[in-house]
Amino acid sequence: MDTGSTRAVLEALHASASSMALSDKPTPLRGVFQLIFRHESSAPLPSHMVGELTLKVHAVLSSVESHPPPPHAAHASRDALEKLVLSRLYTAVFGAGDGDAKADAALHAKLAQLQPLLTPARLGVAAPFCEAEEACWAPAVQALRQLEDFRAPKDKVTLIVNCCRLIERQLQLLLKERRPKDVANVLSPSIFTSPVGADEFFPVLVYVVLQANPERLHSHLAFIARFRNPEMMRGMQGCYFTHLRAAAHFLQHLTCNDDGHEIVTTRAPTALGDEAECEAGQVAINTTEEIHSSQEQRGQPGVEWEPDYTVTQSSAKAYGFY
């Protein structure tokens, strides 16, 4: 069974719960049913209730994860149920935190104000990349704009990972295209011989966020921070997510001159936080050949995986969750 398939995992969980019910054993899914039944709403919850519900969601999902799982892995069970629960509670909790709506409006307006003023060069993008055509970054921009189309926290993180890997792949392609035939005779050959790192990656990410200007970006980031399984955010996914939050924070607090000249007085931040938070002690710019090989086989260079489908009410009923 493909443990990455939400449909397959939910079907296995339903079968396991049904067998436990027939044997009069307590089912670990009861708390999931009750959580959805009590809190599903067609309108956002009052902001003071979001924090309490966040704790309840993690408590219920952790209890299911700690229960002896069926043949699939515990993390796969939690991911599938996280998708189900948050898809059903999405309207109630997304953008419902204290100040979320105001922060969304302010960030969106600020990025719209900065878009015509900031160029890659002014954001500190390295020389080999700042002259690239905007079309080079279009796939990464599109990945961020799709955040509004998916409800599950894991799917939103997947889009962020895809965005960052598309940037990495494009940086590597541009570097390869601009590499002189005789690197030894170049005045500063290190840029052509060293791996692409955070100093090159982060300013481009800032530029991509600026061009994408996703709807309700603050709420998307807050939603992931509140509801994504924290155990799954300790490696590469958490590193990319942290960089995206930093890019949004940098743009939100950026000051500009009215005439659009000398807009950035300092370079965009580069490495963020403790290097131990990122895989291999740095931003995963040089992803493994195995990953790139699997991407190319799927016809999606630079993309790790596709966001899974959004659980619908009919599918929830089909699995016995209603």
From TrEMBL:
It comes from Prymnesium parvum (Toxic golden alga). GO terms for biological process: vesicle-mediated transport. One of its GO terms (molecular function) is guanyl-nucleotide exchange factor activity. This is VPS9 domain-containing protein. GO terms for cellular component: cytosol; endocytic vesicle. Pfam families: VPS9 (PF02204). Residues 101-260 form the VPS9 domain.
